[in-house]
Structure formats: structure tokens, C-alpha cells
Amino acid sequence: MTATAVRTTTRVAGAAAGALLTLAGVAAAPAHAAGYRYWSYWESDGGKPWAYAAQGPATARPADGDAVGFRFAVSQEADDTAKPTAAPDFARICADVAAKDDTKRIAVVIDFGGPADAPPGETPPAKRVTTGCAQVRPDATGAEALAAVAKPLRYGSGAMLCGIAGYPARGCGEEVGEEPTSTATASPTAAKKQDDGGGPSVGVLAGGAAVLALGGAAIWKARHRG
Q1: Which residues contact 22 (CB under 8 A, 6 or more apart)?
Q2: What gap in Å lies between CA 23 and CA 15, rounded to an integer?
Q3: What phi and psi, each to the nearest 5 degrees, are found at residue 51?
Q4: What are phi and psi of 164, to 5 degrees?
Q5: 0.70 exceeded by the pTM?
Q6: Which distant-in-sequence residues (6+ apart) come within 8 Å of 192 by Cβ?
Q7: How far is CA 144 from CA 28, 135, 137, 207, 215, in A?
Q8: Tens digit of pLDDT at every position of the chain (226 positions)
Q9: Quick check: bond before 168 cis, omega within 30?
């Protein structure tokens, strides 16, 4: 083989290797998670700072003296989910509710978010944060504590919490920019509830666009697994 042929072969092989590395890089690169509007659920055990709940309010069972928080906001990354802006102050919130036998008291904080978090065409309540002390049976869930102090509640498919006290009036965890304009409660892009332990099993993906689209969805859903 002549020197020219060797150089040509080397260039072709290098180009092919570069193309494969580029595709591999696209597949391996972390996808940017899309933004979603939804109600996140938070817990405070005995006055501790807010912690993102490991399960949804329908299954979580806070203890007497705990606080639960609900925050409506846009979340774009796995670590930027907004906390309620009010402190989980059980002593203050439940100061006027006397303890009773066979019940427990749960401080409930509801943060409706600001104008930037509101879906198109909707306005958050004038009073951004409301609190209440739920006095419920000992085995009550976080959802039952919420229902005791804030109505009406609206749920979507999969028991996902969609609206508190009528806000928002429609939609349920859609990707930003894909909110419904009708009264539908959920769309195919609805966010997973926090206690959903499932998620898509993604195999070998062909094509950079598919990798980015499915990768972004998988990352977003993974953050809500219980």
C-alpha cells in the first residue's frame, strides 16, 4: 500500500471513529430536563427544615406534631424544586388547636407560588401562603390532612394532586408550554406523582433527538420515584 493510500485510509477511519464518538457523546450526555408546573409535597419532622417527601401525600402518614407543605411551582432540574416559602412552624400554626385523644395535629402549609409559576391565563391567589392545623385520626395521610384545611382539591389520573382550593383551575403537571386550554385534568405529558415507583425502561436508543427527548423524560420521572 502506497503512502497516499495509507493516509487516505487513516483519514477515513478517523472520520468514522469521530462520528461514532460524537453519537456516543450525544447518547451519554445528560439531557436537559423540561420544565413542569406541579404541586410538590414536603415534610417536616418535629420542626426540622422542609425535606422533599419520599412518597406522595396519598400514602405518607405524618405523625402528631409534624408539618406538611405543598408548593406550586415550575421545576426544571432535579435539584431546583422550590420549597414552601413559609417555615414549618407547628407550634405557631397549631397554637389554637388543643390536643384531643385519638387524634393527631398536623400543621399544613400551602404555597400557591408567584405569577411566574402560574399557568397561562391563570392568576395565583392574592394571599400566596395559607396555613392550617389539621386535627385528624391517628392513621390519616398527608392528603387527608390537606383536605381537612383546604378545599376543594382536584386530582388527576394516577391520584396526582392537580389543584388546591381551586388553583390551578385546569391541567395537571404538564410540561411548560403544553398546558391545556380546555378543562381537561391531565395530558399525556402529565408529571408523575411522587409515590410512583415506576418509570420507563429505556434500551438502546438510535438517533440524537430520540436520546435527548427520552433521556430528558426519564431524568424528570426518576426524580419523583418514591
Answers
A1: none
A2: 12
A3: -130, 135
A4: -125, 130
A5: no
A6: 158, 160, 173, 198, 199, 221, 224, 225
A7: 42, 10, 9, 46, 35
A8: 554 444 444 444 444 434 332 323 333 334 445 689 999 999 999 889 999 999 999 999 999 999 999 999 998 765 678 999 999 999 999 999 999 999 999 999 999 999 999 999 999 999 999 999 999 999 999 999 999 999 999 999 878 899 999 999 999 988 987 766 544 333 333 334 344 332 222 222 222 222 222 233 333 344 444 3
A9: yes
Helices (H) and strands (E) in the chain, counts: 4, 7
CB atoms closer than 10 angstroms to residue 101: 5
Q: Residues near 19 by Cβ (< 8 Å), separated by ≥ 6?
A: none
Ramachandran angles phi, psi of 187, nearest 5°: -130, 170
Residue 69 parent element (H or E):
strand 67-75
Cα–Cα distance list, 51 to 31, 88, 91, 200 (Å)? 26, 10, 18, 26
Alpha-carbon span 203 to 107, nearest angstrom:
44
Tell me the C-alpha distance between 50 and 63, whole Å: 15
Mapped onto helix, strand or coil, the DSSP state of residue 134 is strand
| C-alpha distances in Å from residue 213, one per residue of 31, 175, 201, 202, 219 | 8, 13, 14, 11, 10
Q: For residue 78, which of 129, 23, 36, 17 has the smallest C-alpha distance?
A: 36
| Spatial distance between the Cα atoms of 92 and 107, rounded to a whole number of angstroms | 9
Contacts of 182 (CB under 8 A, 6+ apart): 170
